[in-house]
Amino acid sequence: MAFRLGVDVGGTFTDILLVNEDTGQTHRYKTSSTPEDQSAGVLHGIRQVCAAAGIDPAEVRDVLHGTTVATNAILEKKGARVGLVTTRGFRQVLQIARSFVPGGLAGWIIWPKPEPLADLEDTVEVTERVSTTGSVLIPLDEENVRAQLRKLRENGIEALSICLINAYANGDHEARIADIAAEELPGIPVSRSSVVLPELREYERAITTVANAYVQGQVSGYVRNLDAQMTDAGMNAQLSILRSDGGLVSGAVAADNPVSLLLSGPAGGVTGAAWAAEQAGYKDFLTFDMGGTSTDVALVQNLQPRIGRETTVGDLTVRATSVDVRTVGAGGGSIAHVPQLTQALRVGPQSAGAAPGPASYGRGGTEPTVTDANVVLGYLPSQLAGGEIGLDTEAAAAAVKTIADATGLNEVERAAEGIVHIVNENMFGALKLVSTQQGFDPRDFALVAFGGAGPLHANALGKLTGAWPVIIPPSPGVLSAYGDATTSLRDEAARTLVRPFGDFSDADLAGLLEELAGTARETLLSAGLGEEDLNTTYSADVRYHGQGFEIPVPIDFPAFQAGDGSGFAALRAGFDAEHQRLFSFLLDNDHELVTVRATVNGPHPEVAAITLESGGTDPSAAERTKSSIYVDGATVEATIYDRDRLLAGNVVTGPAVIAEMDSTTLVLPGHAATVHPHGSLLIRPVEDSKE
Known about the structure:
Elements: E1 3-9, E2 13-20, E3 26-32, H1 38-53, E4 60-66, H2 69-75, E5 82-87, H3 93-96, H4 107-110, E6 123-126, E7 129-130, E8 136-138, H5 142-155, E9 159-162, H6 172-184, E10 190-192, H7 193-196, H8 202-232, E11 238-242, E12 248-250, H9 251-256, H10 264-280, E13 285-290, E14 295-301, E15 304-305, E16 307-308, E17 311-313, E18 316-318, E19 322-323, E20 326-328, E21 334-337, E22 346-351, H11 370-376, E23 383-384, E24 389-390, H12 393-407, H13 412-434, E25 446-450, H14 454-465, E26 470-472, H15 479-485, E27 490-500, H16 506-526, E28 535-544, E29 551-554, H17 557-562, H18 566-583, E30 591-601, E31 623-631, E32 634-642, E33 651-653, E34 656-659, E35 664-667, E36 671-675, E37 681-685, H19 686-689
Parallel strand pairs: 1-4, 4-11, 5-6, 5-9, 9-10, 13-25, 25-26, 32-34
Antiparallel strand pairs: 1-2, 2-3, 7-8, 11-12, 13-14, 14-15, 14-20, 16-19, 17-18, 21-22, 23-24, 26-37, 27-30, 28-29, 28-30, 31-32, 33-36, 34-35, 36-37
Helix pairs in contact: 1-8, 2-8, 5-6, 10-15, 11-12, 11-13, 12-13, 13-14
């Protein structure tokens, strides 16, 4: 039998999902993350899930991993000391940056400009110049290059980035500098902009290339370490890492291009949510992934996540393709506090993380968190993560009492409910960023909730957004790992053109797209896939002539192959429709083709769907006990159900708590959860669930 492992490392928990590729049977395990060395938590989880399944780790063929190593290096400012080589006259490219300040007028006063990842003292200029068409205007002065690289060596740089002006059109000078760097700076990893991001705009290309160099050491070290530990554990599995756009790359490719991994973890969740929503019969939905440290949200149309051309982590924005995920510092471990200045209750973004964790974990934490509030309200069982974490209700109540005292509330339960209401509003704000602020009405979408804490808050978020049904997938706490295990290999190739539509015929562009597709296929073919396994899609960044930004638009490749002009007509119509949706107006300006790209995907693994036995509407066979919970300012009696014993067609009417190994679902009064034959819970208002 063949087995594959999905691994998702979060700020609080590491989720492991083992899939039997022959039968579709799954085994899951949830363990505390080990921030000091993520691979330790991963290996512990792998051993435990294999033991639970009764198999030897050597039987695992593939390990598919969503990781936050690159993300954490950026957020914690723990990357390498990076040297930057650029064209003479452009030494301050990172310092000048873009003249955009977030927020309103006050942003100019209070916004601290982020520090560049490569210091000015570690930035050198070399004599060379190429034009926007790629012709050499000034030859590369190699002696000058050597002299500048020696300066960087004396500075003690740990990684080198090379970003020359117009290198997207001709990368020969960058390649030669890399060769010289191998002689002058032996052992120093090198990132070239013509490889990392061969696209227009020197600042975006520079900051992306520098970010790649900044995290490359940590990512490559982590990949090597994990590979070695897997070997020591007797495993001979292929390690693949999830990219920010939801595709997989081999561990070696990921180590060379780590800037594409900055949203690796959240992308796995969106992929898993798409799988679960399709099984439940929904194609348009919002995703709501609430973990211990943060909440990630995204919008999916026709089972396709919206893909953006920028990735933002902290105060860093780079040009890298990623699922359009928005993140807020709201999770189960988010700390509630009352600032002395305002005396108003706040929740997050600070988090208790995995160590010491919420007060209720009994690991030394004392500050009140969202998890502690849920414990006080009676929403959580006595144990989490399959018994790995016991909950201390007295410690939770003592922590939340500090909030009750600080706010003048008489009851600990009222303070706990206030914490939950505020964190729900914070997450609702994130959902609005991907829906209403992008021109979408959330009431036209379902809401897929997952993560360890997501199902606990999902019903409330459904009420706030009006997105019904709220879908709770099977194994929601490890759904990101499920997404990792069920995604496919992917690579892309791009070329910047910056020319009006009229400069091309349909046949011209079709030929260029085929060339790019051939380049993107090479990585997947070298990974052992055959031509028949590959699927290619195309897109273009388009703008009106004179605009300073582009909009990504899908390309109808067969229309371009037809060569009758219908290709550019379809591309023009697609751009105009998206521009109208985003900005509510159109221009008469000529359309301009900025960048085109080809994306090649391998096949999705075939994993059998869960099919439950039919059991009618009565869920009483799954009932565990009765318990008091606090909802809407009052104590009510709720029924506690065991999700593993629910059958297809069962209807659980709130107030109710549905418990399982990796998560807990709260069904509020006036709502009901219907069990779908493929295992998902579909929560709706009671009047809607009767239809």
